[in-house]
Amino acid sequence: MKKVVSLFLAVIMIFSFAACSAAKEEQTGDTSGNRKDVNAYVLSGPTGLGAVNLLSRAEKGEGQENYTFTVVAAPDEVVSKISNGEADIAAIPTNLASSLYNKTEGGVKILAVNTLGVLYVLNNKGAEIKSLSDLKGRTVYTTGQGSNPQYIIEYLLDKNSIDAQKDVKIEYKAEGSELVPVWATDPEAVIIAPQPVASTITAKYEGSVQSLDLTEEWEKVSDGSSLMMGCVVARSEFVEENPDAVSAFLVDYYQSITAAENDVEGTAALCEQYGIVASAAIAKAAIPYCNICCITGSEMKEKLTGYLQVLYDANPKSIGGAMPGEDFWY
Fold first, then answer.
1. CA nearest to 53, candidates 286, 256, 263, 292
2. Closest-CA residue to 264 (of 290, 244, 233, 238)
3. How far is residue 62's CA from residue 153's CA, in Å, rounded to a whole number?
4. C-alpha neighbours within 13 Å on the C-beta side of residue 243
5. Phi and psi (nearest 5°) for 154?
6. Rounded to 10 degrees, what is the CA torsion of 241, 245, 246, 251?
């Protein structure tokens, strides 16, 4: 699991060094009655995983603000809630954040990247895989045809001198669950799966392994960008009208990320409780590989811009038709 890498910088800018230090300590919540009502939406799966400890605290009234969290399975639900003003803050895929920015003409800002890549190359009975170049001549099963996974995989294959149309045979499934039985009929195939599906598959087939983390493979070939698949956004109007509440949320969210890293078992139980992941056992296996993080400020802008540019070059519609403007960045 990636360590939290840069929220301290954001907190320093927002509060001061003293406030940054206070962010590390256990919060008991503002009991003065002046807390702001904040409606937050999170997607189930890795994108929502970082918030699960904050969901638990918010339910007990322990957040710095009065948070109401809603967990949803479909990104379209979040789009509608952000667009009509019902959601103040949301955890969503980064490409969807860009699409929302374009759709609402600057109506959302990105606060932090909360998840790096969650795609893994899995191997069962085939020849050992040490690099993406080892996929040449193999059959690869994955999901996401016509969307981000396809663009990511094709970009990385190209950077490793592999023609996705000629050098490998890629078979696309409609959804992650359809990847689970692949090895029952084709045990030598390669699977590229997202978490937590990847951990479900390797747990099912004895001797199978997660050979490559595509987040790490991206770092090897990119020029200053990172594979950043999940983020937290807020309505621009909400940010402008409630700067203190946004700052407080970032501190609470940082604590939630830290709790997930320090208490995997407890976080896994909460994932099942709130419907982030189907079961605690699957969540416990997957959390160390979900690359949760909290990257903000200039680092977020630099590294995410490169990723969005790759998606734009593959298909402009994947990020809403245009690269986001300067007012996208919190």
1. 256
2. 290
3. 41
4. 6
5. -65, -35
6. 170
Structural contact between residues 222 and 306, judged by C-beta atoms closer than 8 angstroms:
yes
The DSSP secondary-structure symbol of 26 reads P
Helices (H), the chain: 7-14, 17-22, 46-49, 52-59, 75-83, 94-103, 148-159, 182-185, 197-204, 214-221, 236-241, 243-262, 264-273, 280-286, 297-314
CA distance 18 to 75: 37
> Could you say which DSSP state residue 251 is in?
H
pLDDT tens sequence across 176-234: 999 999 999 999 999 999 999 999 999 999 999 999 999 999 999 998 899 999 999 99
| Helical axes 264-273 vs 243-262, angle rounded to 10° | 120
Q: Provide the pLDDT for residue 33.
A: 59
Angstrom distance (rounded) from CA 112 to CA 99: 16
Residues forming beta bridges with residue 93, ordered by sequence position: 230
Query: Full-prediction pTM beyond 0.85?
Result: yes
Residue 48 predicted with pLDDT over 60: yes
CA-based nearest residue to 304, from 115, 147, 160: 115
CA dihedral 84, 86, 89, 90 (to 10 degrees): -80
- Residues with Cβ within 8 Å of 305's Cβ and at least 6 positions away in sequence, in order, are 225, 323
Residue at 242: amino acid letter: N
Tokens 């802008």, residue located = 301
- Tell me how many degrees the CA angle 82-49-184 measures, rounded to the nearest 5: 115
Q: Residue 63: what pLDDT?
A: 92
- Give the pLDDT band (50/70/90) at residue 26: very low
Ranges of H-type helices in 113-206: 148-159, 182-185, 197-204
